[in-house]
Structure prediction request, 272 residues.
Amino acid sequence: MTEQPRSSDRLRNELLETALEAAARAGSFLRDARPEDLGVAATKSSAIDVVTEMDIAAEKLITGLISDRRPDDGLLGEEGASVEGSSGVEWVIDPIDGTVNYLYGLPSWAISIAARQDGETLVGVVHAPMRGEIFRAVLGEGAFVNDRPARVRPASELGLALVSTGFGYLAERKAQQAEVARRLIPEVRDIRRGGSAAIDLCDVAAGRLDAYYERGLNPWDYAAGDLIAREAGAVTGGRPGEPLSPALTVAATPGLFAQLQARLDELGAWHD
Ligand code: LIP
Prediction:
């Protein structure tokens, strides 16, 4: 029996199937071919903002597969992929979200692939190979973890919220982020710091976190996870009245979002 298309829309189904295959291939490569002696191949904004040979190789694998299937699409990747494209579809790719975790051999890392058309994210896939999980969403068609529907927790009290966050790679920014976390921790159930924004956004979608926030992310960190979280019932955004952006990313179950967003604004989570 031929497999039923996952999306009712032909283009979105093609984009989803392409993203799923690219994420699966990259995931197998990154899990099975990780060198025991993996080291740092290069650094970016600071000595702790690292790139490994595997980040670079995985991005080439992903962009090569996508370009073979859809040669006219645009590409934007964390490790340098940058193609304008002519189709109106742009792929936003993080070949390893949680690079430091991957470098150290910790399991919390993921491949994040989003497809945007005219700036709107139509498809998002986040593959966490060490967890055996593939999160996916198509705009307007719900979110899934493997083949189970994903739904946020019905939380509504900040004092009972499990909140994840992350920290940047520059000491001055980390100091301000730590100060925000120091003041928030007594006001929530607890804080988690997993090291992968894409996985944090998907854990909000799966009801494993009540909320996540972080300053300083890049589009490739959040593009897929943002769609997955929204399709699972979360609210996402930045400062009050603003969409999520590198300035601030906030994702939470609907009953918490406004409270957390307002408190983060008071605490100055949106600036260094
Ligand atoms: C990571 C993010 C994480 C953040 C890290 C880093 P990378 O992305 O996913 O949330 O706290 O500092 O930015 O660099 O591993 O792709």
Notes: Residues 7-149 form a domain with the Fructose-1,6-Bisphosphatase; Chain A, domain 1 fold (CATH 3.30.540.10). The longest strand covers residues 89-97.
